[in-house]
Amino acid sequence: MTQVITVTNQKGGVGKTTTVSALVTGLSQRGARVLGVDLDPQGNLGFNLGLDIGDNYTVYDVLSGAHRIEESIIHTREGDVLPSDIMLSTAEMAFTAPRREFMLSQHLNVVKPFYDFIIIDTPPALNILTINAYVASTGLIVPMEAEVLSLVGVSQIQDTIETVRKSFNPDLKVLGILLNKYNSRLTLSREILDLAEQVAQQLDSQVFPAKIRRSVSVAMAPAHGKSVLAYQPTSKAAMDFRRIVDVVAGPQFPPPKIK
């Protein structure tokens, strides 16, 4: 069965797109068939993976019914991508039909047979795009920085998750909270970890054992059109993200053997 995983946090700048691009690349490197879906109007996922969207169709064209999802997916060396652009910022007003919460799910059902994983990037908001991602998903990953305001953002999505479970997707699971820019030597990081574990318990989930350490390679990778796993595979952050990929991939897709 295809795993559909949404990376979500209503706070911006917590590493959602970095996490999605790392998952797309890492899973693809293991031989999995992977599709990254960009639901953020900023369109950063495509940029992070080196796409020049240009005249290509986007997820907005798919959701509006202008073009089929099969002709809107772009194939890259690091995995397939359904890109986004600024037109998606009109989604709240543009998509008003009944059962609009199921738009994305219906389109993804068309291509699910061709993928082992679909990884969805979301905007820093709890809007109709985020709801669509939750409805379509089997699991959520919640990245956050090791700071207080980021933790508040995690706490605030709990009500939305419960609403989606009750109304649209009862099987939705939170796979884990992912700590970014973590420094175990800092008291604040350790305190945030303790609080994040309490929130994870409320979500019937976990804080991933792997924490993503600060690394300049994470900031530099998008400028080269690559995920951090492809840009600097031996960096601390890349090694940390591989441990997250280990959890998501499971035994079906083991790490590639190093020659």
Question: What report would you give on this structure?
Answer:
By secondary structure, the protein is an alpha/beta fold. About 40% of the residues lie in helices and about 15% in strands. A seven-stranded mixed sheet has the order 3-4-2-5-1-6-7, sandwiched between helices. Helix 5 (about 105-110) crosses helix 6 (about 130-135) and helix 7 runs parallel beside helix 8.
Number of strands: 7
Q: How far apart are the first and last residues' alpha carbons, in Å?
A: 31 Å
* Oligomerization status of the protein chains: single chain
User: What is the element string, with H for helices and E for strands?
Assistant: EHEHHEEHHEHEHEHHHH
Overall form: globular
User: What is the mean predicted local confidence, pLDDT?
Assistant: 93
Range of helix content: 40-55%
Major sheet: size, sense and barrel closure?
Answer: 7 strands, mixed
Rg over CA atoms, rounded to whole Å, is 17 Å
Strand content: 5-15%
Q: Strand sequence of the main sheet, in spatial order?
A: 3-4-2-5-1-6-7
Structural class: alpha/beta
Which parts are unreliable, with pLDDT below 50 for 5 consecutive residues or more?
none
Number of helices, counting only DSSP H or I runs of 4 residues or more: 11
